[in-house]
Design a protein that fits this description.
The chain has about 425 residues and is of the alpha+beta class. It is about 15% helix and about 35% strand. It has 6 helices and 27 strands. The radius of gyration is 20 Å and the shape is globular.
Length: about 425
């Protein structure tokens, strides 16, 4: 979730480091003219080295190639970027270079155009979802969505209005935490504690307040707030609850924290490789395994031992760049932006090893995946925000008022 938080584009835009630069620093598009060096070229080169140092058996080779292509495009190294995209396309793993803003510098290149046409032919629209209800407010710019199954209430955070609303299953909307109350920052990831109906949320950094982990009671009263740990840029994104622990991704610092609710301490988890823009996060049904999504795939952590390893994707598929990530009956459900084109996915997990056995596209290439970010599972259905409008919000300013529209919550059955 941010999502950058996912907030998709904003999610990516707040991610910091090389990922942020992929979208905010425009390389030269004049043929024959070199692009000016981006202000964070050193960071980008460092990220390139880290990715190139991944072991040969790294299971998400296509994701690494696609990410590297965008990094080299960011540096203005367009022939290298194009070569990497060709190599990625040959793997047939679902990536769509034409949907990546950072690759538009190549849009007039004939070979790039052919790669885009190839991707569009290979990955046509898939439509299974429908609109469940519509939120009339046009300027919420939501990022996080959660459900209290027992109370039959959805909770949705607002990036722009800096509040949390609750929504009935018939679509009636009211404030859970009103705008201006508690001086909230933009609200991102949200989770519900089923034991007492408390609401936990993460917020983005703002000019006067750091990114925070927030705890509200069932009536919307703020009980606790904790700033993200450490110096430098921090952005607590998505979160998941486990007894006395909260696990949350930090998209700016490229970290994942365990927050202990007793001593109120954040501890960084250890991973077998560098992570980039960690975002979606979920727990297995027995709550012993933690799944963390980043730009290169999904890492599964055994919380009993601390052992962590990359989840192996299904053939000709990828787990790269998942915003909302959820566990459902031994499967993973995700809202994915890492292929550049948004899609809602279901991945079936092997019972005895960290491997995806089968992949199913639930929605792709339709109006119901127009800036989606996160969702919630309720009564065997996956509800997700179809059109958050995040791309129309920059530095908390609405870019084009004429593009504002009500937020549609879509739903797709999970058979």
């Amino acid at each position: 979730m941010s999502s950058l938080r996912s907030m998709m584009l904003l999610l990516i835009a707040v991610a910091g480091g090389g990922i942020l630069s992929l979208y905010l620093w425009p390389p030269s598009t004049i043929p024959g003219q070199s692009a000016p060096a981006p202000p964070d070229a050193e960071t980008i080169h460092s990220e390139i080295r880290a990715i190139e140092a991944l072991p040969q058996q790294f299971p998400e080779h296509g994701a690494a190639l696609f990410f590297l292509a965008r990094l080299h495009a960011r540096l203005g190294e367009l022939p290298k970027a194009l070569a990497l995209l060709k190599e990625c396309a040959a793997l047939d793993e679902g990536f769509d270079p034409g949907a990546a803003p950072g690759l538009q510098v190549l849009k007039d290149n004939a070979e790039f155009q052919e790669l885009v046409e190839q991707a569009r032919r290979r990955y046509p629209p898939v439509h299974h979802a429908q609109v469940a209800f519509t939120i009339a407010d046009k300027d919420l710019f939501p990022e996080g969505l959660a459900v209290d199954a027992e109370k039959r209430l959805f909770y949705m955070g607002s990036m722009h209005r800096k509040k949390i609303v609750k929504i009935t299953t018939s679509g009636e909307v009211s404030d859970f935490v009103a705008e201006g109350l508690y001086g909230l920052n933009p609200v991102g990831g949200i989770r519900i504690d089923p034991r007492n109906h408390d609401v936990w949320a993460a917020s983005d950094p703002a000019e006067t307040r750091a990114s925070e982990l927030l705890h509200f009671d069932a009536q919307g009263k703020l009980l606790e707030r904790y700033s993200a740990p450490g110096a430098g840029s921090r952005d607590l994104n998505d979160l998941v609850l486990r007894e006395r622990e909260v696990y949350t991704t930090d998209s700016f610092a490229n970290l994942v924290y365990r927050f202990d609710r007793k001593p109120h301490e954040f501890t960084s988890l250890r991973f077998p490789r560098p992570i980039f823009l960690p975002n979606g996060i979920t727990l297995s049904g027995d709550r012993n395994l933690l799944y963390v999504a980043d730009m290169l795939g999904v890492i599964v952590v055994d919380l009993r031992t601390g052992a962590a390893q990359d989840l192996v994707p299904d053939a000709h598929d990828t787990l790269a760049g998942i915003d909302g990530l959820y566990w459902y009956k031994g499967d993973l459900i995700g809202v994915q932006y890492g292929t550049a084109a948004y899609r809602v996915m279901r991945w079936s997990l092997a019972k005895d090893r960290p491997t995806i056995m089968a992949s199913e596209v639930l929605e792709r290439g339709t109006e119901l995946v127009n800036d989606p970010t996160t969702g919630a599972i309720f009564q065997g259905h996956f509800y997700f925000m179809a059109n958050t409008g995040i791309a129309n919000l920059e530095n908390d300013k609405i870019v084009d008022v004429s593009k504002l529209e009500p937020v549609h919550i879509a739903v797709v059955p999970l058979k």
